[in-house]
Amino acid sequence: MSLKPVEVVRKTATRRDVEKEAYLTGVLSVKCTTESYLHVGTRRVKFSIDETLFTKYRGEIDYNFLVRTSRNYVTYEYTEVVRYGNKVVIPGSTLKGCVRSRLELLAVSRDDKTHFCFRVSDIPRVFPPRKGQHGWRHYRIWEPSVGERRISTDGREACDTTRGDYRVCVTCDLFGAPGLASRVLFENLYATVCELLSLRLDHNEKVEAVKPRTVFSGRIVFRNLRPYELGLIFIGLGAEPSGGFKTILLGKSKYRQRIVEECPQDRSLEGGPIDLGLVRFSIERILVNSRLYDVEEDSLHQGFYLYSDSSKLRGIVVKAVREASEMFPELRVDFSEVKAREEVKQA
């Protein structure tokens, strides 16, 4: 079985200075609440080496010897979560990658065409991956979009404007591509109060994990957006047609349960399964240079319209998501990767 060829519809990129139709500039204040344990790490692993290795075998150590012997003298520490200024954060780059990849994966081609290329979403190395092979859960959760080989009429699989061609797909126009700046800036989300657990998981993996019900807050800054592009951001964050936000997946080990082998802070977790990576977003405020969908603002701040009332915010999300869905009917706005993950668990 081979990947399905799909044409990526590309259009001229939106101007980054002034664009009459892309007139929205402003800030989204967002909140992210963890609904399970969460690990967004630095990918750096600390370890300590017993000096006995160097004193006992002085003069005998070479590279091959270290490879064979060091495991008996090396102690691995817990992989840390990301911190800035001594505060635990979800990096803006992680949030951007999550939103962008969700849009790419939510899109399933219609008539062998799509408006979303695969710039950040992985294509299976072996297709289709069988159960137990690398990436099989990712494939099972997100099929059939992961079975598409997204190309354009000139054979490109991902947008790249460095060659002078400024025709790009929707996500690259919004979030950037080589040679093209993003119109959306994802700032770090900070946890004001955060309790961490040191978990030794199955396969002898050690991680720091944020506890459930931890709240992260931050901003998404946007410039020169069309209203439906604001809707795309909402969809990437998990927005539903009803205006609410579903639980989505973020971070490490989000596709499967892990077994806790040791947790010094909470021994009751040891020996049992835990979930990681379940989060839910919400929009707390919108500050924008133009009134949205004729919804009356709550107040004005130096010419910017402020929306903070929950019912008004929900109404704006509903209308923006509806407009984005009508523009791009290939988006599966109702799809839940969390429900799909539960089905994979039973497989």
Summary, kept brief:
The chain is an alpha+beta fold.
Describe this structure in words.
The structure is a single chain. The protein has 347 residues and is α+β, with helices and mostly antiparallel strands. The protein has one domain (4-40, 95-195, 213-259, 276-345). The protein is 22% helix and 27% strand. It contains eight helices and 21 strands. Strands 3, 6, 7, 11, 12, 15, 16, 19, 20 and 21 form a ten-stranded antiparallel sheet that branches. Strands 14-13-17-18 form a four-stranded antiparallel sheet, with no helix packed on it. The chain has a three-stranded parallel sheet with strand order 8-1-9, with no helix packed on it. The chain starts with a strand and ends with a helix. The relative contact order is 0.21. The model has no long low-confidence stretch (mean pLDDT 90).
Sum up the structure in keywords.
347 residues; alpha+beta; ten-stranded antiparallel sheet; four-stranded antiparallel sheet; 21 strands; 22% helix
Blueprint of the fold:
Layout: E1 4-8, E2 11-12, E3 24-34, E4 47-49, H1 52-56, H2 63-69, E5 74-76, E6 83-84, E7 87-90, H3 92-106, E8 113-114, H4 136-142, E9 148-151, E10 167-168, H5 170-175, E11 184-186, E12 189-191, E13 196-201, E14 205-210, E15 215-225, H6 227-236, E16 247-249, E17 258-262, E18 273-274, E19 278-288, E20 299-301, E21 304-307, H7 310-327, H8 337-345
Parallel strand pairs: 1-8, 1-9
Antiparallel strand pairs: 2-10, 3-15, 3-19, 4-5, 6-7, 7-12, 11-15, 12-15, 13-14, 13-17, 16-19, 17-18, 19-21, 20-21
Helix pairs in contact: 3-6, 4-8, 6-7
